[in-house]
Amino acid sequence: MPIVTIPVTIDKARVLACMGYSSLKLVPAKVLRECSEVISEAAVMLKPLVCYETYPLIIDESNNRLVLPDGNCFSGEYIFQNLASAEQVVVVIATLGNAVSQAIESYFKRGLALKGMILDTIANTVLEQVNHTLWEGLAKQAETGKQGITRRFCPGNGDWELAEQAVLCSLLPLDTLNVRLNERFMMIPAKSVSLVYGIGKAVPMSAVDHDCRDCNQTRCPYPKAHGNYELIIKRQDEVRTITARAGENLLEVLTGNNIYINQACGNNHTCGKCQVYIKCQPVPPISEAEAKLLGPDNLKRGLRLACFLQISSNMIVQIKEQQDMKIVSAGPAFTGEINSSLKKITVTVAPPSLEEPRDDVARLVQALRRPDCTIAYTPLQQLPLLLTAGEGDLSCTLYENEIIALAPADEIRMAGIAMDIGTTTIVAYLIDMESGRELDVETVLNPQRLYGADVITRIAFTQENPAGLAQLHRVLIDGINSLLERLCRRNGLPCQHIYEMMVAGNPTMLHLLLNIPCTAIARAPYTPVFTKGLKIKAQQIGLLLNPEGYISLLPAVSGYVGADIIADMLVCAMHKSSKVSLLLDIGTNGEMVLGNREKLVCCATAAGPAFEGAKISCGTGAVAGAIDHIDFSRYPFYTTIGNKPPVGICGSGLVDLLAELVKYGLVTNSGKLKKRADVKEGAVGPELAESLIVHYGKPAFMIDKETGIYLTQQDIGELQLAKGAIFAGISVLCKKLGCTCNDIDKVYLAGGFGTYLNIAKAIAIKLLPIEFQDKVIFIGNGAGAGAKLALLSQPVRQAAQELSVKLQYVELSASREFTQEFIKGMDFKVQQVVSNRSTMDGQN
């Protein structure tokens, strides 16, 4: 009989939910910190073992018994009715071993009740995960054999007597598992369970493994609520079981449980990206609006949109696979002199005496020779014990003039984090604060993308939901904490040794980071609560740094020109040059700065979402399989990221496609996509001519027929709006500065989209002026690189503050010139730029 180990992961969100926190925003910072610590410890001690065997059943209807080959039987009306159709029964014992039970008991004995409760809950959720993983494997085997499988049944649950646990245990080798039963039929160690599944051709295939209505566990990993439905959510290798009430919206249920699903419109039923496969009875009908957004090809594949689906039964939900996004983290390295706000000083504190009985703090301050310095609360608590244990030799970490950490001499390792919080992605750099060396980098998608692809949609979420602001704040903090834990784990560094985090980001992201209302940013006159650089204690917002460490925010300029642009400027140093330069950061928003050391003007355009695929029918981010380059002179005419099967088209691919459509005459200068009847097949070739299709009565271009990836006339309109706004913004800034595009010496492109942009093709669609052909310099993730500079140098921080004051912000919505230039920028009337393939490849 098989005895197997099943790998598991510990889901912090589920653990906290099982502890009674219905929303992550309600979790105190202390609980979050201790939960993270206990999860790290539990990952080492949890050793799940599962033993199972399949036995044939004899149905004894006259006595309501299920008889096993050795003569033992399961009895009682409840278990008989549930397994009477089964031909076989799978008997299972699963255990986490004795170490976790001993650790829970140890926590409570030492007065660490919170940690004991957390570890107890972790064990319950892991045991549940083990059982579910086994059930999935058994269900696949049953399906292959054209059989069905029941959900699980456990002695002591429902109306099945706990005493029958002895029957299950007699069938499997308890000694091998180091498991036993006590006189009350309870399993020892406590984190063990026995259960059975019924299998047979007459058994309906169960949609769920666990039924909350039968569960009498007081600390069950699922909420006990009669009448709720259970949803099994599958995404790539992740499987979760959650509950939902009848009538709830599936997309809202997924986002409420922090399960990522691609979407861009914030549940407004307009983007068509929250695609899922569902299995349930009855299957909800498809509305005309849902069918139109999905399109005929996706309908044939059985896809549905989560935002249209209401919960009315148990359901299996397979989220359409989302690949990891290719996030740009590279940028210029720090080469200057380290002059940060952090200092490590080792001192010897003199002991007190009857002649000079000064307090501990006074003697520490004297040893530091900094009479004006203060001490934070945490090191104040530690000071007397450290002085006793270390006989006065201490390592002190100071932030400016405040003692924020103490340790025995030479034990403090001083690290910092430079972070770029973008609307779509987050990049964090772990920095050694003594050498300035970058130790590691970690990237992640911004978890707030659950609530919309752009800042306006997220701001609207905070307006429309009473707890919306707290929800967006909490999910961002959790995402950053997970990122920090991974960085620290890889580098053998306790999170407590990170003493400062320098943050760049757009104003909305910085407001949400601090849990500060940002609704005014979305309405005229678009006013943020703050723009000046701030610093706050990490513990105030629950980030897993040293609790006395600081979160420092680079300054912003306005509601839409943020700290990320200031960071970009620190990297390219355009403010130090006598020549005119242009900085472009085309991310989810499009911000730009023009000028030199004499004068600097800036603006922001709402252009980025289209170039990141958010408003495009088959658009996607820079994920594996995204179509990233297109050249009609080649076959096949597209490439994908990682050479994977195509899943959509990303920003650089969209620019290439538009340029090729214009070049081959398939799109007019005004942006109208031609019909197949209007194109001479001999002029463009049969393949391109056949790619011109009709989509719901309107022209479209089929990029890949097999996967149904296409570009519609509406998509072209979205791209025209985006590129027209960028082009117009550049024109307006030139007029404000009194220069032309010819006068611009260098054009700095920052961000992920800019890094992969083919400049020749960007010029061919008039996204960029033709004068920029040989002037572009890619700076990669300038926001992250600028945050590194500011983290390690106080003069750089001062320069950032001065730049935020010096920059003159131009509000484009109030500019008549912008409207005029925007209209000019919408068309494709531009001189064609010929560039050989090697040059293009070099730019990418």
Give descriptors for this structure.
six-stranded mixed β-sheet, 37 strands, 34% helix, 26 helices, alpha+beta, single chain, flat, 844 residues
Kindly state the number of beta strands.
37
Beta-strand percent range: 15-25%
Low-confidence parts, pLDDT < 50 over ≥5 residues?
Answer: 221-227, 832-844
The gyration radius over C-alpha positions equals: 31 Å
Class from secondary-structure proportions: alpha+beta
Shape: flat
What is the makeup of the main sheet? 6 strands, mixed
Mean pLDDT: 85
Number of helices: 26
Strand order of the largest sheet: 22-21-20-23-25-24
Q: For the record, give the distance between the C-alpha atoms at the N and C termini, rounded to a whole number.
A: 56 Å
Helix content: 25-40%
Task: Describe, in plain words, how this protein is organized in 3D.
The structure is a single chain. The protein is an alpha+beta fold and 844 residues long. It is 34% helix and 22% strand. The longest helix is centred in the N-terminal third of the chain and has 32 residues, at 113-144.
Q: In short, what is this structure?
A:
It is built from 26 helices and 37 strands.
Write the layout of secondary structure elements.
Blueprint lengths: L2 E3 L6 H7 L10 H17 L3 E8 L1 E3 L4 E3 L5 E3 L1 H7 L4 E8 L2 H12 L3 H32 L3 E2 L15 H6 L3 H4 L2 E2 L5 E2 L3 E9 L28 E7 L2 E7 L5 H7 L18 E5 L8 H13 L3 E2 L9 E5 L22 E7 L11 H9 L5 E2 L1 H14 L2 E7 L2 E7 L6 E7 L3 E8 L5 E8 L9 H10 L3 H23 L7 E8 L1 H7 L20 E4 L12 E4 L9 H10 L8 E6 L3 E6 L4 E6 L2 H4 L14 E5 L7 E3 L7 E2 L1 H13 L17 H4 L1 H6 E4 L2 E7 L4 E4 H25 L8 E5 H6 L2 H6 L11 E5 L1 H11 L1 H13 L1 E2 L6 H10 L11 H7 L1
Parallel strand pairs: 11-15, 17-19, 20-23, 23-25, 26-35, 28-37, 29-31, 35-36
Antiparallel strand pairs: 1-2, 2-6, 3-4, 4-5, 6-10, 7-10, 8-9, 11-12, 13-14, 13-15, 16-18, 18-19, 20-21, 21-22, 24-25, 26-27, 27-28, 29-30, 32-33, 33-34
Helix pairs in contact: 1-5, 2-5, 4-5, 12-13, 15-23, 20-25, 23-24
